[in-house]
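Now for a chain:

_____
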Amino acid sequence: MMNYPKKIIFAIIFAIIIFSATFGLYAQKKVVKDELPSKLKTSLNAYSFNIPLSDGSMDLDELLEYSAENGFDGVDITAYYFPGYPEVPSDEYLYHIKKEAFLLGVEISGTGVRNDFTNPDEIQRRESVDLVKNWIVAAEKLGAPVIRIFSGNSNTDGYSREEVFDWLIEDVKECVEFGKKHGVVVAIQNHNDFIENADDIIEILERVDSDWFGLILDTGSFGEADSYKQIEQTARYAVSWQLKDEIYMDGKKEDVNLERLIKIIKESGYRGYIPMETLGAGDPAQKVNKFFEEIQKTLKKLDME
């Protein structure tokens, strides 16, 4: 056995002690993080104002102002409402929106695009991949931490569901890897399209298998069986949400039970934004105000229990 100088032996022992202590602290932090109580922040999904944003009677500056005036913590600015979509606007415009949100005290909780990874045409799927990548760069510039994508809803007659899953997964993986390089989480939204149920969501999330990929859990887009049970099944994968004022139970639409829904979210340990979205006819501001008030009351009630 070789005889090492005492200084080297002490240095090795010291290094082992420091490594063990550091690793122990890291492990302890991981445990503490996992045990943190749920913390929820409100956000407004821009699609709630789809008509005025689409016809030009409202712009993104006004959306930010509305969000600030009405007490939202954040706003989810869907990419379709940026001038020139699907092209990415100038850096000047992106930075203007970022600055205005900052000065108003409203966080940009995310953005999202329209893509289709179920299209049998590989060239058109490539266009969707490029679209997502372009807007990942835009999200990075905006300071948006997550970008929402869809699975798609193309006619896939002549192809097995397994084939569609394979090319969808391949495209998503490429986007997620690109998002990782730009510090933007990519998240797929269940949108009553190719994704039909909780099992589909879980298959996609587990096959992509990345810390930079998650789920935008759309509470109003499970069209079959018990939506609350499917939300419970998939809540652990959520990196953001889309709370809607209606939900489907066995294929029938009904008013959402907010208390039941938010309990599921809180019990999952989720910490982050819960963007809300209202749909249908009527004054969008009135619909948003009403639903937001109900969410705030429910959050307050559950926090007091």
The two ends are 66 Å apart (CA to CA). Residues 6-34 form the longest helix (29 residues). Residues 14-33 have pLDDT under 50 and may be disordered.
